[in-house]
Amino acid sequence: MELAYKVVYSKRKSLTISVERDRSIVVKAPEGTTLEKIHRVVESRKLWLYEKTRHAQKYSPLPHPPGKELVSGESLPYLGRHYRIELVAGDGGIRFEQKFLVPQALAGKSAAFRNWFVARAEEKILPRVKMYANSLGVTYKEAKVGDGKYRWGSCTPNDNVIFNWRLIKAPMFVIDYVVVHELAHLIEPNHTPRFWNIVNAQAPTMDKAKAWLQKHGALLEQDI
Q1: CA distances, 95 to each of 83, 116, 126, 128 (Å)
Q2: HSE-CB of 25 using CA atoms within 13 angstroms
Q3: Which of 43, 77, 162, 188 could bridge across to 169 with cysteines, CB 3.0–4.6 Å?
């Protein structure tokens, strides 16, 4: 059976293959790489690709229930814990004081919470990127928070690093693992033993973080 895959050409020096969370296969290849060579590499990784695209836990269809309503008594995850929502009088923005204080004017407006999460992700994740980049001795062009539907983070061929805003719902040790994972690709583009050694040296709770994402990934993927 032939594997379907998407090819993305760039100025990178090496060829890499990744499996997205929606089971699609993406091949990132240096400009000028022939389709024959790409096909040979994909064929050589066929068993690994079949295993990854059929991983029951990570890639099974996720239940996407409707988003939660912004009503008193409901709760939402933030940095690995669930906090209660309390509607308060007046307008203004959402406040966090070991619970979410939501103005009545924003009741039912889930976009307000999404914006709040994005702002907190920029506030808390981006400084970690700078810190770990210094520790690893790597440089990146730009670090930003984005809306990747099937990835927690990515390192682009242009040395930009992008992180899913939904990560702000996860514990800090999970955020740190994802940050280190993407920055480590600036040293080693493939998931080689050397790559995992680099990640584990900077994020010693790597295995715990990977297990957390396996278990709670569906929760993170909800918009709120």
Answers
A1: 12, 9, 21, 23
A2: 22
A3: 77
Residues 31-84 have pLDDT tens digits of 888 988 888 888 887 777 776 676 544 544 444 343 455 566 678 889 999 898
Whole-angstrom distance, CA of residue 200 vs CA of residue 203 = 5
Structure tokens at 101: 């204080």
Q: Which domains does the chain have, with CATH numbers?
A: 6-59 (no CATH), 111-221 (3.30.2010.10)
The distance of Cα 115 from the centroid of its chain, to the nearest Å, equals: 17
User: Which 8-state DSSP code applies to residue 158?
Assistant: T
Q: Is 80 left (phi over 0), alpha (psi -120 to 50) or beta?
A: left
Q: Quote the radius of gyration of the chain (alpha carbons, Å).
A: 20
Q: How many residues does the chain have?
A: 224
Q: Which amino acid is at 205?
A: T
Amino acid identity, residue 191? Answer: H
CA distances from 91 to 36, 100, 101, 105, 112 (A): 61, 14, 11, 5, 12
